């Protein structure tokens, strides 16, 4: 037998076997696997450009120097106001700037989609920062991510070059969205908050909207006898609404001093008599079984639908209620059937938690809502500002009210709406003797609302904690915020 | 080919390994780096703050609660899921009556296999809607309506299921077991069919009852499969993000009763403004990852046995 080498090699390799470990070892030796440190060079925080790429010339007609043929990237929240008005806005913009292109995107999850863009340095030019998943505005302001809107407010309004934008808006529009006197978020929609009921049902039963606590208790007994739960709130998703109910009662009962003390984090502010009374009333609602059984696990839409179906008498909400319960997308998602034909949605000012409140009956909270911001690092910041200026024109404001059944902050708009909900809201807002207001919930949202009031309110409304425990928890949270040097403190006089 | 083997293999592996490094390893490394900063993820500025985030984590009460809940799921979920999956796999493959020749499952086992596997393929959105409708907390919820009809539940006091801190975790466990048991049943069925039927026949001939067959024949032969499945379910249990977000109120249950580490990370990173929130969330993420790694290693060591040849 010749000792020639076998052509195919022996059955098992004579050297070490080829395994995963050996291949990767070879590759590492060959320098194909780059050490992690250099990969970090392609990290998330790369420097972003800081120039205004689309800057044109400024003029009276074009106060921000918007390049007339550029693109504007606008992102809107797809919520209670629907998705028709963004398209209408793009159309309105095109009548003034026919060569521009407005890219309209709507989404239900603003932070999920926009946070990566902010973090990567390419945010949109115009952002409707709203909804459950909105970006925290105080964070955006503190980090310099949003542009101050002073130049927008000082610019001439679209309808009348002799009036500035600021003067064309209702008084108090900048109460929300301002930090240290500078406006960062323009809240476009003027909402009135309060208690809603079915005027038709009340007429039928001979009931009157209550103004004091004893009137409410009397009415509640009659409602229970008729098989209707006096109060409902969807506590799975709508605990923020209960926060409003509570704070409205505190403001009514204790006057503005009470809410100012809470906002300014004064010691023992949460143990003021007015606050104690208000929380005890909430406990009373639960203990006396004046609430809809099982509302702890309902979403706010489910609760609103149960109220529309006549299973509950009173509900807290804002003027978006009618639009929300008529929006087909919302109804389909929550399997709700919408507003019955004979339902007369009517707004009333909240009743007081006692029989002699500090503020007069009929006082309500008017709140500008639905914030719009202009990111600092948007590619076409001037375009974003111009789009917002067009949005604040009377023409578009009327169109907005037509499409969404909501009022805007633009003066002299929104007349002649055809709905009992809005008509009653306009009447309540117009005849209100005083305005209810508190700020702590937006100023210290993370620690005081999200971490403390929201879970504790859920427990209180389920009857698992008492009023004292609730108040102690809120006071502890307020003390923690006061003692934390990293949280910026704000105060107000009135 | 002998000489050119390594370059050849490396050539093919380069691209997948590069993809793995960029999309899997690099984000982990970046998270570890950011956990030592106070980044807020709204702009590109941040400062290095050393171990501050980790010391803050040790004092965080809510994170401790989330950790406790994650451990609860880690202990209950594998036991119940794998137990149920083994039982189903056994009954549907081997547990049939011994009155006919051959080893087969109970009557109708092919139908049962489809029914048990079906929940696994449902998307989380459908799971949320289905269970949300069944477990709705007022008299319109299916479960409450039935129980009220029978008279077990008072009309004015409907059961709160997912909205009560005492029951929410157990309901999440039940939904998770309902969803995952089918998949692991199929896994164990495959494992069982790899076992030669002669062994089972021999046991049956020797007079073994169903229980003895299961504990003395099937279980030892499936030990490898079970240990791998245990690690998988353990990792699923330490996650639980989808179920908690989809089913529980405020995505963490009434008053953080169903908060888990995964949801805590998400809410810290992307929720209300807290100074340095993204860096803090990265620290939580690193903690969770290290913990999962350590648990997986321990499990694989403890459950390891010699390979069984058959």
Task: Describe the protein.
The complex is a heterodimer of chains A (494) and B (310). With 494 residues, chain A is of the alpha/beta class. Helix content of chain A is 41%, strand content 12%. Chain A has helices at 20-29, 36-39, 84-96, 110-119, 137-142, 150-154, 199-205, 213-225, 239-263, 273-287, 300-308, 321-326, 328-333, 381-391, 394-404, 420-431, 440-443, 445-461, 467-483; strands at residues 71-77, 101-107, 126-127, 178-179, 182-183, 186-198, 229-232, 312-318, 345-348, 365-372, 407-408. In chain A, strands 6, 7, 8, 9, 10 and 11 form a 6-stranded mixed beta sheet that branches. A 3-stranded parallel beta sheet of chain A has the order 2-1-3. In chain A, strands 4-5 form a two-stranded antiparallel sheet. In chain A, a hairpin with a 2-residue loop joins strand 4 (178-179) and strand 5 (182-183). In chain A, helix 3 (84-96) runs antiparallel to helix 15 (394-404), helix 9 packs antiparallel against helix 10 (273-287) and helix 10 (273-287) packs across helix 19. Chain A is globular and about 70 Å long. In chain B, helix 5 packs across helix 11. With 310 residues, chain B is mainly alpha-helical. Chain B is flat, with a radius of gyration of 24 Å. Chain B contains 13 helices and no strands. Chain B has helices at residues 5-34, 52-59, 61-93, 109-121, 124-134, 142-150, 168-193, 197-205, 210-221, 223-239, 241-247, 261-270, 277-302. The interface between A and B is large, with 70 and 57 residues.
């Amino acid at each position: 037998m010749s000792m020639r080498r076998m052509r195919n090699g022996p059955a098992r390799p004579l050297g070490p076997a080829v395994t995963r470990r050996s291949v990767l070892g070879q590759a590492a030796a060959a320098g194909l696997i780059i050490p992690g440190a250099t990969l970090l060079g392609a990290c998330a925080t790369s420097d972003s450009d800081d120039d205004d790429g689309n800057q044109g010339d400024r003029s009276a007609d074009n106060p921000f120097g918007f390049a007339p043929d550029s693109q504007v990237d606008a992102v809107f929240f797809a919520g209670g106001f629907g998705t028709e008005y963004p398209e209408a806005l793009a159309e309105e913009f095109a009548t003034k700037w026919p060569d521009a292109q407005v890219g309209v995107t709507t989404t239900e999850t603003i932070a999920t989609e926009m946070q990566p863009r902010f973090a990567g340095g390419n945010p949109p030019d115009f952002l409707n920062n709203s909804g459950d998943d909105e970006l925290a505005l105080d964070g955006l302001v503190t980090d310099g991510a949003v542009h101050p809107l002073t130049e927008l407010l000082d610019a001439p309004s679209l309808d009348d070059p002799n009036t500035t934008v600021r003067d064309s808006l209702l008084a108090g529009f900048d109460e929300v969205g301002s930090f240290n006197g500078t406006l960062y978020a323009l809240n476009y929609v003027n909402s009135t908050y309060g208690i809603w009921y079915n005027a038709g049902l009340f007429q039928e039963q001979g009931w009157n909207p209550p103004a004091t606590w004893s009137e409410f208790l009397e009415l509640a007994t009659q409602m229970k006898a008729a098989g209707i739960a006096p109060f409902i709130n969807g506590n799975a998703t709508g605990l923020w609404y209960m926060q409003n109910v509570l704070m409205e009662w505190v403001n009514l009962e204790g006057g503005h001093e009470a809410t100012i003390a809470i906002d300014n984090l004064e010691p023992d502010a949460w143990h003021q008599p007015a606050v104690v009374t208000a929380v005890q009333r909430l406990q009373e609602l639960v203990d006396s079984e004046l609430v809809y059984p099982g509302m702890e696990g309902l979403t706010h839409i489910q609760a609103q639908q149960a109220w529309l179906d006549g299973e509950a008498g009173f509900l807290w909400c804002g003027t978006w209620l009618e639009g929300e319960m008529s929006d087909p997308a919302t109804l389909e998602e929550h399997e709700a059937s919408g507003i019955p034909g004979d339902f007369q949605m009517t707004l009333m000012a909240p009743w007081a938690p006692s029989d002699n409140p500090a503020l007069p009956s009929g006082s309500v909270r008017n709140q500008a809502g639905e914030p719009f911001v202009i990111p600092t690092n948007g590619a076409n910041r001037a375009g974003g500002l111009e789009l917002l200026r067009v949005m604040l024109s009377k023409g578009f404001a009327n169109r907005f009210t037509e499409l969404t059944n909501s009022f805007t902050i633009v003066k002299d708009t929104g007349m002649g709406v055809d709905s009992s909900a809005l008509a009653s809201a306009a009447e309540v807002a117009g005849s209100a003797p005083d305005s209810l207001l508190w700020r702590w919930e937006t100023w210290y949202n993370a620690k005081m609302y999200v971490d403390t009031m929201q879970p504790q309110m859920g427990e209180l409304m389920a009857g698992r904690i008492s009023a004292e425990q609730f108040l102690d928890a809120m006071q502890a949270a307020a003390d923690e915020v006061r003692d934390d040097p990293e949280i910026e403190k704000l105060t107000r006089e009135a | 080919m002998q000489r050119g083997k390594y370059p050849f293999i490396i050539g093919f592996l380069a691209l997948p390994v590069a993809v793995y490094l960029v999309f899997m390893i690099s984000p982990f490394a970046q998270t570890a780096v950011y956990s030592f900063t106070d980044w807020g993820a709204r702009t590109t500025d941040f400062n290095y703050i050393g171990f501050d985030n980790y010391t803050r984590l040790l004092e965080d009460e809510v994170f401790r609660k989330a950790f406790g809940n994650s451990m609860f799921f880690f202990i209950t979920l594998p036991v119940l899921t794998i137990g149920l999956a083994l039982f189903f796999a056994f009954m549907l493959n081997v547990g049939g009556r011994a009155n006919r020749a051959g080893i087969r499952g109970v009557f109708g086992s092919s139908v049962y296999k489809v029914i048990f596997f079906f929940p696994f393929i449902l998307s989380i959105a459908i799971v949320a809607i289905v269970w949300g409708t069944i477990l709705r907390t007022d008299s319109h919820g299916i479960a409450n309506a039935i129980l009220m009809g029978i008279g077990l539940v008072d009309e004015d006091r409907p059961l709160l299921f997912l909205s009560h801190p005492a029951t929410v975790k157990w309901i999440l466990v039940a939904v998770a077991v309902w969803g995952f048991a089918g998949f692991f049943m199929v896994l164990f069925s495959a494992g069982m069919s790899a076992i030669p039927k002669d062994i089972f026949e021999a046991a049956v001939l020797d007079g073994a009852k169903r229980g003895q067959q299961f504990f003395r024949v099937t279980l030892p032969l499936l030990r490898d499969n079970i240990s791998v499945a245990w690690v998988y379910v353990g990792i699923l249990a330490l996650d639980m993000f989808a179920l908690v977000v989809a089913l529980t109120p405020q995505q963490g249950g009434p008053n953080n009763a169903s908060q888990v580490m995964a949801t805590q990370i998400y809410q810290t990173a992307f929720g209300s403004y807290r100074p340095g929130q993204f860096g803090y969330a990265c620290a939580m993420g690193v903690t969770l990852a290290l913990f999962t790694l350590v648990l997986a290693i321990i499990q694989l060591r403890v459950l390891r046995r010699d390979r069984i040849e058959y």
